[in-house]
Amino acid sequence: MKLLLLEDDHILSETLELFLTKEGYEVDVALSEEEAIELTFEHQYDLYLFDINLPEGNGLEFLKALRHAEDETPTIFITALTDMNSMAKGFELNAIDYIKKPFEPEELLIRLKAKFKDEILHYGEIEYDPKSQVLRKDGKIINIGNVPFRVFVKLLMNTGNVVTQDILCECLENPSGNALRVALTKIKQKLNIEITNVRGQGYLLETL
User: Fold this and answer.
1) Is the entire prediction scored with pTM above 0.85?
2) What superfamily would CATH give domain 2-115?
3) CATH number among 1.10.10.10, 3.40.50.1000, 1.25.40.10, 1.25.40.530, domain 121-204
4) Fewest Cβ atoms closer than 10 Å to its Cβ: which of 11, 150, 158, 170?
């Protein structure tokens, strides 16, 4: 998999480049939007990893320009921002995930592997295709709504492990405890599954 990393922090960009290269990824690094523009003209990438806050420019606006140029490359944002408006804009541009600084490179690797698994994931009679991002139940495509869908996928990718409320709230357009509970209720009703509330920790899908 060939990645373009747009990150102006020299230490972080070098750390991620070395780590991902050792894991078998091909990584090009851009320290500025200008460098990233040149690289996207010269190469085809399987994934973009974009910082949002740049000394000159903005990762969101850069992705918007790429989308207008009919570049639909999957994108993950790496950001220190906790601004929900920025997050919403990213998802509107079809970003597939956010990862908040500070983070361990292993966390990014886990997310990459989860997002780009070749096999369809199964949970009882439910199946999820990470490539097409299609959810099926009993073989039929089912639509549970954008927000519940993102929450469910986050839980599914971590089946058997507790996912904290903070992490699940990253999937929400207007994060709050009540909004999360509403999303979880819709998931349980539409998919007919149980989601365990681990008091003080978060939520999980039990391993079947």
Assistant:
1) no
2) Response regulator (3.40.50.2300)
3) 1.10.10.10
4) 11
